[in-house]
Amino acid sequence: MVKQMNDLKSLTLSELEQVLTEQGEKKFRAGQMYEWMHRKLAADLDEMTNLPKDLRNRMKEQYEYTSLKLLKRQISKADGTQKFLFQCADGNVMESVWMKYKHGNSVCISSQIGCRMGCRFCASTLDGLKRGLRPSEMLDQIYCITRLTGERVSNVVVMGTGEPLDNYDNLLRFITLLTDENGLHISQRNITVSTCGIVPKMYALADEKLQITLALSLHASNDEKRKKLMPVANQYSISELIEACRYYFEKTGRRISFEYSMVKGVNDTKEDARELTELLAPLNCHVNLIPVNPIKEREFVQPTAGYVQNFQKMLEKKIRHVTIRREMGRDIDGACGQLRRRHMEQEQTERL
Ligand code: SAH
Q: Do residues 171 and 193 touch, judged by C-beta distance below 8 A?
């Protein structure tokens, strides 16, 4: 793992033990500090009342203790989904979503501030990439939401703003910390990472042999169409992607989840369904259909519900697991990146 130099919450327990013992502290102090950070979800070092004050002060001098400031919280009247707008120490803002399901609470986190992938239908990418989030900042989204809702999070999806595989080392460290038995101890099987398909990183991730679910944002069944929706398709062909998915399944035994955002008149025809079935039927996979969430900067329109259901039926002839994503929090700027974007637009107008 790549070292995290001065970011306290991004250190593993053994790294923290090393830091503290090198400073002449007893090893158990690291355990206490780690528990405060990753179990008790302390907002700052001053909360760590059973640690000597001089140790806390020394840590404050040497390390950064990340914490997020809540700028906005929206609660959906329709389904209880909550959206959070957070601000990092450097002033950048990001959003996260909390969803309540029968099987537990799920949090959708951002992995980057902005995104450079340029998918045409996505609001998160319109202003490009500012920077990747640190492991601590990815954790903080979950920690803050847990504190605010008072409820345990059982599932984490890395499907918010950003391309997680474009922030690979930080993503891996985040997963290590999130699944650590001394922290929230979330099972790898309850973590989903969604990618637009950065092929070399998909191979690298497969070799990590984690039990997380990999979701691939496919959105088209041939290269020509995919290139119109996703610039990354100019770099990697669908056949290269499928090969990488096979490899992932071989190495991990985990079924790939294919995401397919349906756009009226663009990728929702019978021919699209036929081509998609041909492509995916040979794989052990799950297909998730998402009626595109319209954003005001683009002309994309959702197919009707009946149309999406017909598309599902056509796929189901040869693919066993095909679902339609339930739309959550439609009344609260549901689509990716819209809340953050609205906030940035507002700030700009206020400055004028
Ligand atoms: N960069 C990653 C994860 C973030 S996007 C990825 O590409 O997978 C999470 C999912 O939402 C992706 O499948 C993305 O293509 C999809 N998405 C983004 N904007 C959308 C919109 N307006 N409507 C429907 N799906 C959208």
A: yes
Tell the residue number behind the tokens 């501030």, with chain if given.
113
What is the distance between the terminal CA atoms of the chain, rounded to a whole angstrom?
44
Nearest to 316 by CA among 265, 268, 281: 281
Q: Name the pTM for this structure.
A: 0.95
CA 272 to chain centre: 28
> Rounded to an integer, what distance in angstroms lies between the CA atom of residue 42 and that of residue 144?
10
> 243: which DSSP letter?
H
Structure tokens at 285: 């996979």
Give the distance (Å) from ligand 1 centre to CA of residue 68: 24
Catalytic residue list contains 137: no
pLDDT tens for the chain, 352 residues long, are 655 669 999 999 999 999 999 999 999 999 999 999 999 999 999 999 999 999 999 999 999 999 999 999 999 988 889 999 999 999 999 999 999 988 899 999 999 999 999 999 999 999 999 999 999 999 999 999 999 999 999 999 999 999 999 999 999 999 999 999 999 999 999 999 999 999 999 999 999 999 999 999 999 999 999 999 999 999 999 999 999 999 999 999 999 999 999 999 999 999 999 999 999 999 999 999 999 998 888 889 999 999 999 999 999 999 999 999 887 777 776 555 777 877 888 777 776 6
Q: In what order do the strands lie in the sheet with 285-291?
A: 69-75, 82-87, 93-101, 104-108, 155-158, 191-195, 213-217, 256-262, 285-291, 321-324
Q: Write the residue with the smallest CA distance to atom 21 of ligand 1.
A: 293
User: What is the whole-number distance in angstroms between the Cα of residue 38 and the centre of ligand 1?
Assistant: 29
Shortest-distance Cα residue to atom 18 of ligand 1: 122
Rg, the chain, Cα only = 21
Residue nearest ligand 1's atom 22 by CA? 293
Active-site residue flag, 336: yes
Angstrom distance (rounded) from CA 313 to CA 348: 46
* Residues within a 6 A CB radius of ligand 1: 117, 119, 121-122, 159, 163, 194-196, 217, 259, 261, 290, 292-293, 295, 335-336
Query: Which position among 17, 88, 95, 122 bears the catalytic label?
Result: 95
